[in-house]
Amino acid sequence: CPAEAVAHMPCEDPRRNSQLSREMNFYRERHCPLPEETPLCLIPPPSGYKIPVPWPESLHKVWHANMPYNKIADRKGHQGWMKREGEYFTFPGGGTMFPGGAGQYIEKLAQYIPLNGGTLRTALDMGCGVASFGGTLLSQGILALSFAPRDSHKSQIQFALERGVPAFVAMLGTRRLPFPAYSFDLMHCSRCLIPFTAYNATYFIEVDRLLRPGGYLVISGPPVQWPKQDKEWADLQAVARALCYELIAVDGNTVIWKKPVGDSCLPSQNEFGLELCDESVPPSDAWYFKLKRCVTRPSVKGEQALGTISKWPERLTKVPSRAIVMKNGLDVFEADARRWARRVAYYRDSLNLKLKSPTVRNVMDMNAFFGGFAAALASDPVWVMNVIPARKPLTLDVIYDRGLIGVYHDWCEPFSTYPRTYDFIHVSGIESIKRDSSKSRCSLVDLMVEMDRILRPEGKVVIRDSPEVLDKVARMAHAVRWSSSIHEKEPESHGREKILIATKS
């Protein structure tokens, strides 16, 4: 691709999106070109690109040359977001609402929320900036997934991922976020500027859908006790009351609520017209649906609630109730866990994949099912983005119940991330995730070019599939300038599949 395409994101292209409606921030959401409109070319790195600073040093500094964009440092340096220091950008850990550092801010929250001891595991940081909040929570054993749009700050998510913090590009606009109901134990907004009560509280309802019963919602900044926003603050409190949230604390410009476990207190009539979703239609996990105006509550009370679900790390291996609803779910879950423990051991011992290498931090599983691959890496200094492809079984809820993170995604569209943001990509069944797409035109070439876009130079790809598919993949790997080799599967495995290992030049 041309040199100016170094940060190209096909579905978040400002030139395309600027022509769209600004109602409900529609123009900042994903808007993907048709496959035939997407040029088949490889995204070049910027001039002077260097192999990223290894984890955990990367949490505090990254190479300036890898993302030579000074706008955030110039605008937010006084708030401690990030600074330019010689060859590096450094991250003091601050934010607009916590210029003294995320650590100090998290200590304040810990007065009201059980941040230690494994009660909380999954968090969503909305409008995250450069993700210092999520990065600091990692030391508490809390896995925070951070998101922000590609807006006037342009590259905030790229900085988050370069730091080694879980993040992706997203906008809370007209569509649901790509997660199942009850995914997150903690949801956080620090001056995220989401108008939670606008459009009859539609955005608050989406937050409520994603928050686990018994989970915590933290909002810092406007409109919480904010000058000239008395009505907005009153409306926010009214919505929380209508949804029966327990007010834990108002500390300065920070409010903390706890979501109720049951649905018994939800009134049938209230000023926002909130009603329960039709229980005859299960809460859809489909990520492409438009935002809904009804409130989701568990059909089986308490099974997904904080306090009922096991603490971390026990919840990683315990069979979640949402796995058991699948036919033979208990047996399938346990077999999947054994299979991936065996496979990852084979990757390490026989295929010499250095998954504990300092150069491996951001990992993606493109066809995750129950998250068995990620679970087998739980003791490694990596995090895994578990992706559930379109038209596959909707198992992402099981992944979140295990204390892991991920998204739904159609792999015939580009992923919501910047170029060069993953060190290691794993896919079991590459042909099936391409075939199961909702798109009429989707080729293996398109998929390989997209994998190359999001993979860092010297990053690795592991693909499991039939010998016929891997022969095709190997030819394409040469075309996208990967060096590759094909290996036998682990001896205990049945079936015809083999394993391709590739390295991006």
From TrEMBL:
<keyword id="KW-0472">Membrane</keyword>
<dbReference type="GO" id="GO:0005768">
    <property type="term" value="C:endosome"/>
</dbReference>
<dbReference type="Pfam" id="PF03141">
    <property type="entry name" value="Methyltransf_29"/>
</dbReference>
<keyword id="KW-0489">Methyltransferase</keyword>
<dbReference type="GO" id="GO:0016020">
    <property type="term" value="C:membrane"/>
</dbReference>
<dbReference type="GO" id="GO:0008757">
    <property type="term" value="F:S-adenosylmethionine-dependent methyltransferase activity"/>
</dbReference>
<protein>
    <recommendedName>
        <fullName>Methyltransferase</fullName>
        <ecNumber>2.1.1.-</ecNumber>
    </recommendedName>
</protein>
<keyword id="KW-1133">Transmembrane helix</keyword>
<keyword id="KW-0735">Signal-anchor</keyword>
<keyword id="KW-0325">Glycoprotein</keyword>
<dbReference type="InterPro" id="IPR029063">
    <property type="entry name" value="SAM-dependent_MTases_sf"/>
</dbReference>
<keyword id="KW-0812">Transmembrane</keyword>
<comment type="similarity">
    <text>Belongs to the methyltransferase superfamily.</text>
</comment>
<dbReference type="InterPro" id="IPR004159">
    <property type="entry name" value="Put_SAM_MeTrfase"/>
</dbReference>
<dbReference type="GO" id="GO:0032259">
    <property type="term" value="P:methylation"/>
</dbReference>
<keyword id="KW-0808">Transferase</keyword>
<dbReference type="GO" id="GO:0005802">
    <property type="term" value="C:trans-Golgi network"/>
</dbReference>
